Records
---
Amino acid sequence: MNNKPGHLHPLTLLVNNVVSTYIDLGFEVTEGPILETDWYNFEALNMLEGHPARDMQDTFYTKKIGSDGKPMMPRTQLSQMQVRYPELHKPPFKIVYFGKAFRNENMDATHEVEHSQIEVMAIGKNINLGDMKGAIEAVLGGVFGGSVKTRLRPGYFPFVEPGIEVDMECFKCKGSDTNCLVCKGTGWKEILGSGMMNPIVLKNGGVDPVEWQGFAYSIGWDRIAMFKYGIPDLRLFNSGDLRLTNQF
Amino acid sequence: MKVSYNWLNSYFENKLPEPGSVVEKIIEHSFEVEALEKIGEDYLVDIDVLPNRAHDALSHIGIAKDLAVIYDQELKLPNLILGHEGDFNTEDYVDVGVADSKLVPRVTTRVVTGIKIGKSPQWLVDRLATLGQKSINNIVDITNYVMFETGQPVHAFDYDKISGVGPKKFELRFAKHDEPLKLLDGTELKLDSETLVWADSEKPLDIAGIKGGANSGVDEKTTAIVLSICNFEAINIRKTRQRHRIVTDASKRFEHSLSPELAGWGMKRTSDLISEIVEGKLGTVSDIYPSQQKDSKAQFKTSQLNKILGVDLSEKEVEEILNRLKHAGFGWGKSGEEYEVSVPAERLDVRELHEIIEEIGRFYGYRNIQATLPDKNDFKPKVHKYFYYSTLIKNKLITLGFSEVYSYVMSDKGEVEISNSLVKGMEFLRSEMHDSMEVSLEKNIRNIDLLGLDQIKIFEVGKVFKNGKEYWGLCLGVRNKKGFKKTAENESLEEARIALETLLQTSINTEIRNGIMECDIEELLKDLPVPDSYDLGMFMQNQNTVFRPFSYYPFISRDIALWVNDDTNVEQVTKIIKDNSGGLLVTEPKLFDEFSKDDKKSLAFRFVFQAMDRTLTDEEVNQLMEKIYTKAREEGWEVR
């Protein structure tokens, strides 16, 4: 244990690192509510009733009824802000927001009911996938040090199109160890889901998709903290245990 | 989707490169690959098909089409154009009815007579074996093969097991409430009135689109079959399989929507394989397809493509990709600057501008996109008041010796109730932080020796749901080690309160209960100004810690008090303790008492033993203590 008088939680350390990089790149910090309506959590993001992606989200539903007449839920992702923010602000803008997202599942070392995410979104006349790649690499460089290579490949998320999965060069072996436990010898580690905002989502936020375009991506902040600090179990983060915090 | 490399290769005149490099290309342009495994003379490629490509790519032809575009190679696919010719009229054998053509957009039916059930040819057995599918008989193998080849599920009923005399009643209808059905795998089900079934005049024969029934399956005595190859509406299939808790290869495909054109292709391919492999006579095809799928086209301009992808492709480069897409059934034309792309029927995912740009972008290769940074000058970001001040608060609290914890916002009580929680103790959103703080104090006080502390001082900043409002709460908790009297718990909290009041220039009016103080941060910040910018220094902390795993086994703490010479320093003593503790010391020995008398001084230490892999026994620790005592005496120190 180190000997500072008090200690910040490792997730706070990491969010400070990430968010300050984005502030430096001209992004605005914002936030959305945890308790959310079906509209903002699903429908507005192109996940209509009966959409298979709704199953994948293992949603907690509450007994509280939202303004759309449907049960409210602790948000399953932070992407609500892709609609909420444009409703109140005219583009262009660049924003970053973070907090907990919720998953109704049994917990183990790699499954956590309350997991932490950071999401980043930018809308402009010419914001494109190259800008997204640059913004992602800047922040991974800030977290892992030096320049970090990424690899973009096809992915699918209902609220983006094209949808893109981003892998980062393995921070452990940099692709040099075929027995590496972190990347299983592939040299790459899947790190986030991203893409260009779906025109349907832009419209739902009151943005004209002919004039404006944007990117959005979501980082599993606790998973990055596991990699960065070598923390073996996701459940430690919410444990309230100083045997974790006081090491930092 | 499990795919056979040899099977894919059979569609190419020029053979594919070796499996490893094919896998690399699939990852780059199409899908993640879970595994590549050599099986006999073949390779199994396990591909994680994306949900929006389940329309077409849960099939060998679908994957082969992507590869044909990637490698710019001509495909030689089997003929899939359905003809209706046959040796007799299927309608004379079955009277096909469909209760709801919205839920079943297309129904193709064909009777085949004079069948000899037998073994499948070796090539068919081998291909299925690579996928982990056991060969059953020629007819069943063909139906499976066609699904894995085209993506279209195929079902064969034993004609003689259908009740009645020709034309026998054979209809797709809703089941009756509680109607029994035994499935092919022996599961007995009670159906409900929302479940679609194929039925004869007496009984249901299957759960349509999901699983066959035991009463109508093909077996070694079968001589005539009814092939039923249909298209089902996706959501209904999904809801039905959820109600009955069955997932099958067929339901996985139907619940993501298939093109109704596939049903025709599946019928053609199944019929051809039956003609080739099994003796038998084909009837005509009954095809109920009231509203044909329309051709679809998508338009884009090169400038739009470049603007979204962040690339600078020339028209020539775009056309090179469009030409490659022809291998997968796409076509294109151009008028002015606008390209018009015709989309093959099975590609239900390509309709709009962004979707055709995605299709071209992925074959161009997202890896070729160069990183840039978004324009910094077109937007003036504002400071987020809560984030700004909460960071200041956290930074202040750690200087006062408080450490930060996170806990769950879900709890066993609160105002907002969760109706479907799978996790015990998480049935509500919390309406205070006091309880989770109490739990955290309890947990940490048990480990106080391990932590090397006299006082547990913690804080949490987290969400609270109270009076219909969601807000950021701040909660501080202090608990003293038994016997620690230097600073009372409430005194430490008062000290923190005053420090925060000074920091924020506002008063914090909240009561302290059982060593816990809780308040609403947003309320606290109500009258504070929003600063113009952040001082980035507030976010700069040491990031280089590497976590050291801790033991989950119990620990044992021990004290030692020694008379030593006045000139003996603390380090000399701790070294002796550490060197003789069998590597089981988990904390630095902590000096907790020191006083001098004459030319001697008394030093008292506390330290903690713990093993990573087992529970330590008292005897084991006693032996270590004896060793430490002996060594101390050898130094001339007196054990008190």
Note: Chain A has a mean pLDDT of 92.
---
Amino acid sequence: MTSTAISPSPVSTNSLLWADNLHKRFILHAQGGICLPVLKGTSLKVKPGECVILQGPSGSGKSTFMRSLYANYRVDSGAIWVKHGENRIDLTQCQPHELMAIRQKTIGYVSQFLRVIPRVPALEVAAEPLMELGLEAAAARDNVRSLFRRLNLPERLWSLSPTTFSGGEKQRLNIARAFSVDFPILLLDEPTAALDAANREVVIELIEEKKARGCALIGIFHDEQVWQRVGNRVLTFGREDETALGESHE
Amino acid sequence: MITDCDEARLITMQDRLVPLLTVERLSKAYGAVVACDRVSLSLYPGQVLGIIGESGSGKTTLLKAIATHLPIDSGRVCYTSTAGQALDLHELPLPRRRQLMRTEWGFVQQNPRDGLRMNVTAGANIGERLMEVGGRHYGQIRQTAGLWLDQVEISQARMDDFPHTFSGGMQQRLQLARVLVTSPRLVLMDEPTGGLDVSVQAKLLDLIRSLVRTLQLSVILVTHDIGVVRLLAHRLLVMQGGQVVEAGLTDQVLDDPQHPYTQQLVSATLVP
């Protein structure tokens, strides 16, 4: 068994996530071994209560960066230190079962898409992460019901499989699934893309509540109005510089 | 530059979890053909490990070697029993091994005809396993068999019918009931949805998924179907030519495949 690098929580920092000098390229073996370098030394630190916006044209690597932070993509070099319980752990060195534990407790991810499980009702799909953490089924469902209500997901849908849901309905289910857990770190990949104005407002509120509770958020938002409101800082891709919101974006 | 973690010692993380099963450098050859070449893996409680690879990649041989259905040339298969003992399966005396296989292990065959007794009724197929582990009370055995038919969504009215009167999907569900009735901790499955219609497959997958969760099973699942591992497996091994060419969390391997063979496998799959 290979060892995992962890460190006792250093007093010198209070960041929850620290990506240090990430490099990631894709090698396409079927296309003559073409090599696409996407991340070339990206770094980011996020503190509790902060929301960092990833910006940049499509293809500039912001999604690749975010997926790397969830260990969905495996980086070629660099470290991703995450505060997991009392320890700081480097995600890039973790064993699969350790990553599973980190995704269960520490890092939540709202993707644009919902991988649909046939025949399982929406309420159960959304309550699953809480139940995996050991919460009683009834309490987990109550928690999810209140989020469904806030997100205006019609009650008649709760007992149905999300297979037939619209894009916006699936997205709200995804949001409820990830926001129900008290993750210290949340990654948001276009969480409002398919939502109408009223529900977008709800998501903004939910994000503000997470920030108030000390959650560190990293988000990709298509909608400038949304990120201008929730973001504290912007990490720009393509140009690879980091700016404080309000300085370069007036 | 002074960084957050410079001063931090790097220490080895104490695994809070003990693996249920550890395979170390397992090799098995058929004459000159090496079916499994120094394969290592570990499986943790409650995990589903998928093994994918095309026909001839050695995945079924690996599964059979783990189950001790086949002798191995070298390596070790180590299992942590309920009592917390680490057992080297291939070195274990045969009676003890058989007892383990009956009580703590289960094996789901690709072809339900290999996993069922076709000349006894559905109820007897389930009840027989209970009797092997000491069930004696006829009424209780029959009642448990009925509950298991419910679990796998076969009407209790079919209890006294023979498996050959069942459809392929029903036979496979009956095999699941036969395997799971003794509450195994570790279940090995060889292409459990192979040869079934897509709609029947979906239902079976969903059933396996919910049983794995509610019974907290650990599973090793061999398949060539990427859709199956997407839905069921937490972790994935990709085999080619008897070797493990890639391993990781299922989403890592399928979303960011690194090895040429895995890339080919993923890109050849129709996106559902």
Note: Chain B touches chain A at residues 3-5, 7-13, 15, 17, 42, 44, 47, 202-203, 206, 209-210, 230-231, 234-235, 247-249, 251-252, 255-256, 258-260, 263-264, 267 (CB under 8 Å).
